[in-house]
TrEMBL record:
The gene is LOC104781686. The lineage of its organism: Eukaryota, Viridiplantae, Streptophyta, Embryophyta, Tracheophyta. InterPro entries: Kinase-like_dom_sf (IPR011009), Prot_kinase_dom (IPR000719), Ser-Thr/Tyr_kinase_cat_dom (IPR001245), WAK-like (IPR045274). SUPFAM superfamilies: Protein kinase-like (PK-like). It comes from Camelina sativa. Keywords: ATP-binding, Nucleotide-binding. It holds the Pfam family PK_Tyr_Ser-Thr. Residues 51-337 form the Protein kinase domain. PROSITE patterns: PROTEIN_KINASE_DOM. This is Non-functional pseudokinase ZED1 isoform X1. CDD domains: STKc_IRAK.
């Protein structure tokens, strides 16, 4: 392709993507958005060494996260895969919601985007430890102390609460799971990936939409009714809490390598009062503990599990009222002494 044709294609892509993004911003937030920078494709390609595999942070089919450096600043760059996406507007929703959420300290901050690719690339702050793995760990394999696990849950709860309450319409994430939680160098948790978000109009209790999310984190009521409510995020967050507590993925290999739902496993264990079977043993030993008192740690873990079970509605008669209640409870658990 000649240089002139390449530049022409970039301009067409830039105009098309810019227009779609503007429409999404207007539809989602009445045109109100935080300022974000526009980066050139040359900057993105240079930062990622032409999207080199050596720069990959994580890959999930729909997109790949790359590490890079732009203007001497480390960044995380999200590159979408056109082949796997069925609804391109979700990419623009990711940008529009991320831009609104970026002021919250427990959200992966959106710095800017590049409109010169077929789909916009997102440029976000760099998080040293990357996203959590499916079993709630980090890429280095370092065991997370109990205090860090509790801190991650508390901080993500505040981010989801902000998403639900800070805007004229309640916004539901619909994709809360460990791989969307980044951890920075100070062990601060950052929520990301807002492409499945949907808004519940003022005065309404729910919207109906096709089921979105990751297996093991999808609220069963949502799965059967297709009604999106705050409970969708509360349930998913409850499963995240169980992942952090158990060190197991939401779907793991049980006896005979049979896939097993973590929620079903926890429910079955709780029916026979097998509390200690649920908790990751590293939480009790020196690796996952810390210098706190073991009795205090146990009381925190028990309270944490009780709250997680309320989030996933283990006992139907004792659900939580909303994410605000969850965030407050986690702060109280952290303060137990």
């Amino acid at each position: 392709m000649s240089k002139n044709n390449k530049n022409k294609k970039k301009k067409i892509s830039d105009l098309k993507n810019g227009g779609i993004l503007l429409e999404e911003l207007i539809a989602s937030f009445d045109g109100k958005t935080n300022p974000i920078r526009c980066f050139s494709s040359d900057q993105i390609l240079k930062a990622t060494d032409n999207f080199s595999e050596s720069q990959v942070i994580s890959s999930w089919g729909y997109f790949i996260w790359y590490r890079g450096v732009i203007e001497e600043r480390p960044v995380s760059i999200k590159k979408w895969s056109c082949q796997n996406l069925s609804n391109f507007t979700e990419v623009y929703r990711d940008i529009s919601v991320s831009s609104q959420m970026s002021g919250h300290k427990n959200t992966l901050k959106l710095i800017g985007c590049c409109l010169e690719f077929d789909l916009p690339a997102l440029v976000c702050e760099y998080a040293e430890h990357g996203p959590l793995s499916k079993d709630g760990g980090i890429s280095s394999g370092e065991v997370l102390p109990w205090k860090v696990r509790l801190k991650i849950a508390k901080e993500i709860a505040t981010s989801v609460t902000y998403l639900h309450t800070a805007f004229p319409e309640t916004i539901i994430h619909r994709n809360i799971n460990p791989t969307n939680i980044f951890i920075d160098e100070h062990w601060t948790a950052k929520l990301s990936d807002f492409w499945f978000c949907v808004a519940i109009p003022e005065g309404e209790l729910y919207v109906e939409d096709e089921v979105k999310g990751v297996i093991g984190f999808v609220d069963p009521d949502y799965y059967w009714t297709m009604k999106v409510t705050e409970k969708v995020d509360i349930y998913s967050f409850g499963v995240v809490m169980l992942v952090l507590l158990s060190g197991r993925a939401a779907v793991f290999n049980g006896p005979g390598e049979t896939p097993m739902s973590l929620n079903d496993h926890v429910s079955e264990v709780m029916e026979r009062n097998g509390f200690d079977e649920i908790v990751d043993k590293d939480i009790w030993n020196g690796l996952g503990g810390g210098d706190d008192d073991l009795v205090l740690r146990r009381s925190q873990v028990e309270a944490f599990l009780r709250l997680a079970l309320r989030c996933v509605r283990f006992k139907k008669e004792d659900p939580v009222s909303g994410m605000l209640e969850v965030a407050k409870e986690l702060k109280l658990i952290e303060k137990l002494s």
